[in-house]
Amino acid sequence: MQECDILLIEGFKNGGFPKLEVWRESVGKPMLWPRWPGIQAIASDTSINIGSLNALNLANAKEIADYVLANAIKPRSASRI
Fold first, then answer.
1. By the 8 A CB rule, do 24 and 58 touch?
2. Distance between CA atoms of 65 and 58, rounded to whole angstroms?
3. pLDDT (tens digit, 9 = 90+) per residue, 35-60?
């Protein structure tokens, strides 16, 4: 893979990287969190109580994008500019 600023992957749960879970109560399946390692936040279409984990509104794309950018982008070193 070539160098990139950010990479979003859907469905690749086994990697050792931070994850954003998308959970819909209407699907009828339990959340992967807290059993699955690396989940940093959950975006849902319902109000959820997940303690200190970040809960995001699935209908608010800006909130999700802001969270992803704030938690995924690392400043580039001066040597790469």
1. yes
2. 11
3. 999 999 999 999 999 998 999 999 99
Residues 72-80 have a mean pLDDT of 58
**Residue at 8: amino acid letter:** L
Summarised one tens digit per residue, pLDDT across range 2-41 is: 777 777 888 888 888 889 999 999 999 999 999 999 999 9
Contact 19, 36 (CB under 8 A): yes
* Phi-psi category of residue 11: left, alpha or beta, with phi > 0 → left and psi -120 to 50 → alpha: left
C-alpha span between 40 and 55 (Å, rounded): 9
Total Cβ atoms within 10 A of residue 58: 15
Structural contact between residues 55 and 48, judged by C-beta atoms closer than 8 angstroms: yes
Place of tokens 């992957």: 9
